[in-house]
Specification:
Belongs to the UPF0057 (PMP3) family. It comes from Rhodopirellula bahusiensis. It contains four helices and no strands. The protein is an all-alpha fold. The chain has one domain. The longest helix is centred in the C-terminal third of the chain and has 14 residues.
């Protein structure tokens, strides 16, 4: 996870998820959690960005 994406996770978690995974279920869940409370959205986005490498996430 590079530093720009990490910074973006702390500023706008759903946007960082969108940049890495697109408009999938990870994005929508991150958006809902961020709207309910910033901290749950932040924690979920950090977990997803750290646990799944970019590129491999879009494979079927």
């Amino acid at each position: 996870m590079n530093y720009i994406r990490l910074l973006l996770v702390f500023l706008l978690p759903p946007v960082a998820i969108y940049m890495q995974f697109g408009l999938g279920h990870h994005f929508w869940l991150s958006l809902v959690l961020t709207l309910l409370g910033f901290v749950p959205g932040l924690v979920y986005s950090l977990y997803i960005m750290a646990s799944r490498p970019p590129g491999l996430s879009r494979l079927p």
